[in-house]
Amino acid sequence: RGDSKVADRQVDSVCPYCGVGCQLTYHIKDDAILFVEGRDGPSNQNRLCVKGRFGFDYPNHSARLTRPLIRRPGVAKGLDPDFDPAHPLSHFREASWDEALDLAADGLTRLKAAHGPDALAGFGSAKCSNEEAWLFQKLVRTGFGSNHVDHCTRLCHASSVAALMECLGSGAVTASFMQALEADVVLLTGCNPAVNHPVAATYFKQAARNGTKLIILDPRGQALDAYAHRSVRFTPGGDVALYNAMLNVIVTEGLFDQAYIEAHTEGFAALQAHVGDMTPEAMTGLCGVAPETIREIARLFARAERAMIFWGMGISQHVHGTDNARCLISLALACGHIGRPGTGLHPLRGQNNVQGASDAGLIPMVLPDYQPVTDAQVRAAFEELWATPLDDKPGLTVVEIMEAITAGTIKGMYIQGENPAMSDPDLDHARAALGRLEHLVVQDLFVTETAQFADIILPASAWPEKEGSVTNTNRQVQLGRAAVPLPGEAKPDWWIIQEIARRFGLGWDYTHPREVFAEMKRGMASLDHISWARLEREDSVTYPCAADDAPGADVVFSDAFPRAGGRARFAPTRPLPPDEPVDAEYPTVLTTGRQLEHWHTGSMTRRARVLDALEPEAVASLAPAELSRLHLAPGDPVTITTRRGAITLTARVDPSMPAGLVFVPFCYVEAAANILTNPALDPDGKIPEFKYAACRLSRAEPQ
Ligand code: SF4
């Protein structure tokens, strides 16, 4: 804190990493961030985790892009082991903004003229502001002329959103995570908040200390187990079986809330009949949980006066991810655990603005506020707002776009702040697809792995350099403020998107993000009563909000759901096997995810000095018994092989892992976990099965 003596100014903003959306203050001297402190935001009350507190220096990394780059003639696209992203001039040359933007837009407009609007696609970013997300999807829809626009929600909670939209009529959480403090029972499943939503985890710990019973259901152990009333490990992929068995107990023992079901739902009789044969005894073999344990947790959840369910990507990243979420929704509806303080459904959103980017329409099948592109009335409203005809066909999703590139139908892309060359499943295939693009424009902070496939690279803005709104997992719209100047010739993302749009003849003329926000309010009822001026004044306003001076609704759906008739819907499911079950050749389950210290593909956190020092190398977490079986000691190299490829990384002993399961973080390019992962998709959410692939482990020779 001695540093505070030398800071010459402070700027209040929001953390750039996870969906918790902690408010923070940058302490700055000579336009450089000295340190960061948490402030009293509604979702963090002065708390920050290690990423928010120490991960602030990545914008100053020596590899930061400061001028537009154009690929040198004859230099092959792709990951070249001799290429150094900090010295990109071996493969690219510097250019003026005018030259780079002209070339970027020319390549895209030429492809559109030659092959039609379906030849182009765009990936926007959940790390950018709401206004930038709005502009990006507007450019694709009104400039490119298709709905082929998506972002990382496809890789995290698309299946949760699909189920929530289907059953409740809304894709966002029904209650904030602070409501856990009001709950008698909190069920956490397929999530590891102490790692992935660390400040949210502090609320769960606080709730447990106050007497709330935490039930944790997951294949792996976790730090919150120490606070849990019951922590139950189930077989990877056995989740639908487990939840249906819980529903069976609730139905057969009459633990459901008849009055709530009659007043607020439809389809319960069908669910009752459907789960009749999925008894705990029938499901125990599939989920690996003893029948008496299933009965105990089902009774605990159903008999609670107030209970909440939180879930993460352990639920969503499966070919049955939507079914998983449907089951959790059924559990809450059957017991009347929605619409009151201390009750609700909460998919813990991943990136800092994945909620806002989704709300703003960075989704191929819906316009802003989840309004279907197939609805003529909806389209007409946006056609009037944007004075442009819109395509009525739902666009392709992230993985489908890669398939379309391989098939030769998509030929040009604009990728803003996403890194599919690290984040997509089956990376060899995804990287080959990127290499086939005839024209690729990448807008980012660094020459990411994806940018190494680009024709043009446009240097963009880091979060501490941005002004804009973001929406966190709690539906809190918050204001981020620019704390430090942009380096060199880097530009705000909204400015770059606008310059591309102008070259598509769109004639945009925004001079500040607040003008974009004002336009968003005309197309998004969710932003009613939230103005830019109010955000500047209050820093955070929750949607939906009933009046200009009213606080937003922390808990929603007390009276009715936003579906025809106002009723929520039960959607019965049946257990399905993983797409790629283990077998004699590939006997171990591979699961992937994030580490506490690193974020997503590592493009920011691996360039943050403290975070990279804490977790500098790729590791595979294994149970002690698994290490013994392989005759490995912690620190030995281990090779993981799937049907799609192999990587070698360092073995780490992790007593929270069950035998037969290996966990690998996906942020290390030198051992990219997604070389191994299965691209099979959930049919509804179109999300890949990152949480289950059959693999083989073997001892590797030390290098
Ligand atoms: Fe940032 Fe999330 Fe950590 Fe809060 S919990 S400081 S939002 S990474």
TrEMBL record:
Keyword S-adenosyl-L-methionine: no
GO CC terms in record: membrane; oxidoreductase complex
EC number from the UniProt entry: 1.17.1.9
UniProt keyword terms in alphabetical order: 4Fe-4S, Iron, Iron-sulfur, Metal-binding, Oxidoreductase, Repeat
UniProt keyword Metal-binding present: yes
Domain 4Fe-4S Mo/W bis-MGD-type: 8-63
Molecular-function GO terms, alphabetical: 4 iron, 4 sulfur cluster binding; formate dehydrogenase (NAD+) activity; metal ion binding; molybdopterin cofactor binding; NADH dehydrogenase activity
Domain of life: Bacteria
Any Gene Ontology biological process: respiratory electron transport chain
Family according to the record: In the C-terminal section; belongs to the prokaryotic molybdopterin-containing oxidoreductase family.
Protein name (database record): Formate dehydrogenase major subunit
Lineage: Bacteria, Pseudomonadati, Pseudomonadota, Gammaproteobacteria, Oceanospirillales
